[in-house]
Amino acid sequence: MHQDLDFEHAYSLYRLNRFKEALDVLDLRKSKDPEEIARRSRLEAQIQYRLSSYDSCADVYGQLHKDDPEDNGLLVNAVAAHVAGEQSRKAMALVSKNKEALESSYELCFNAACALIDEGRLKEAEAHLARAKELCTEELVEAEDVAEADAGLLEDHEELAAIRVQQACVLQRFGKEDDAKELYDKVLRQKPTQGHEIDVTVLAVACNNVVALRSEGKSLFDSLKRINVASKESLEHKLTRRQMVDIACNKILLLLQAQKLDVAKKDLEKLRQSYPDHPRVALVQAAIAHREKKNKVCEEVLQTYLASRPDDAQVLLPLAQLYTQQHRHEAAVEALAKLPLGSRTQQTTVEAIVSLHNRQKKTRQSRGLLARSDPVLVQE
């Protein structure tokens, strides 16, 4: 391969989803030309993102933005990498340093909203998404040469679909499930306009979230069909690591509800091979054990994970709930006490701890009488 073509070679490998090979080729020759270095760095960042190396990706984009602070696209991508890597605080710290860019970039508003959702700051996220929609509509009016009075005609534009899905996610977190479902369904029913289709990753997320809204008693067949759409192999290199895990976990839980235990176990094994240290994978493994009424195995799965990550709230909360269901109130309190301070002081957690303490007290006073049978449901 001629040295002058190694960038093109690396880019071709990247487009073929051969990411590790692309990185190797990209490192074959170092350039002293600043423009060439920037071009290579951008490609490197994109490859790192596809390899789920989100910290490395964010570092590269962060440095590129320092070198070229006028390019808001670099800032948008750095924030996106932090969000994808579940580093919402780093994402918001970067946004805070560049607040003026929020007034001109709908992509940055959108990414900031995603970080705020992760932090549970739903009102702020809602406001950022509203602003993102305004800015995006303004850009579309200009790009599509539409009169401002006719801006409503762009309401179903594919560029707005991701914002709509994220707005539905906020409504879902607020407990406004009917409103959320209406928005998801509207996106999923949209027809392509002028040959442009909604991004497949947006549709996958909408499908997954609609499944999460499914009430008990609703059609499992319809939910399984939706989750299969969301988890098809063609999306493997387009969804983030977190999206892949969430969709795969939801699929396994649906299979459990459909009494397809063997299929669920096979899917779990694939998931464990791909993401062996992910907390949600441990939770699904525990859920399967719980469905099989193997409570001891369920507890061991959660405890094994916590042995190396003792303060993981995603696993501590279900463990506390398991103990509560078994009327082991003291063990449940001990599990909740290990939560990070931010999680431990949330209202629902404090209420759960107080309730458990009260139950312990009543049990001691009753001198052997059975504790109340209704469990404390601890939620994030």
UniProtKB/TrEMBL annotation:
Pfam families in UniProt: TPR_8
Lineage: superkingdom: Eukaryota
Transmembrane annotation, as ranges: none
Name of the featured protein: Signal recognition particle subunit SRP72
Species of the source: Durusdinium trenchii
Lineage: Eukaryota, Sar, Alveolata, Dinophyceae, Suessiales
